[in-house]
Amino acid sequence: KAGVTQTPRYLIKTRGQQVTLSCSPISGHRSVSWYQQTPGQGLQFLFEYFSETQRNKGNFPGRFSGRQFSNSRSEMNVSTLELGDSALYLCASSGRQGSNYGYTFGSGTRLTVV
Amino acid sequence: GESVGLHLPTLSVQEGDNSIINCAYSNSASDYFIWYKQESGKGPQFIIDIRSNMDKRQGQRVTVLLNKTVKHLSLQIAATQPGDSAVYFCAESPGANSKLTFGKGITLSVRP
Hints:
The complex is a heterodimer of chains A (about 110) and B (about 110).
Chain A lengths: L4 E3 L2 E4 L5 E6 L6 E8 L3 E9 L2 E5 L6 E5 L5 E5 L8 E8 L9 E2 L3 E5 L1
Parallel strand pairs in A: 2-11
Antiparallel strand pairs in A: 1-3, 3-8, 4-5, 4-9, 5-6, 7-8, 9-10, 9-11
Chain B lengths: L3 E3 L3 E5 L4 E7 L6 E7 L6 E7 L4 E3 L3 E6 L4 E6 L8 E8 L7 E2 L3 E6 L1
Parallel strand pairs in B: 2-11
Antiparallel strand pairs in B: 1-3, 3-8, 4-5, 4-9, 6-7, 7-8, 9-10, 9-11
């Protein structure tokens, strides 16, 4: 079956702009989590959605937001982009009751802010 | 605060040798631990996991060891192959529905 699909794969944005990233989980998976990956900070948790509700949230400013649709697809939005937001944004989905178990990651969206 | 860290940033091994990648964690409430492998241009890929009620778990060519006394986790890869070259992350969580906290990652380089 198809894996986790993230679009677009690459993005270049200018400081101050906003961006929306999309994640389509594995069919049947209801939990979607987002992570930011940078060389300096590694993988940092952004938020997790389960059945359209945000269940967990990381320590990121309010410029980072997300949502999940009824078909479990998820989007994350970053407003007022800063240079430091340049990173690989990863989405992971899980179909098991415990969202950590059976995590499958997508290949990520590489965001570059110039 | 809570953190998960790796002892070494890079590890170089000879093809065919065994590899051992170590990880320290600080949250004594951690219940679930996972090792991931990330190849260039891809997202992290699940390797093996272990719950806190176990101290060892084996998979195909991989073994994870958990020492809760010293909060240490290790990944052993038997007969390391060139395809094992990647960045390896440990991750921990206090529960099934809690966020995963990842270590910084270590690069495994396999010499032919």
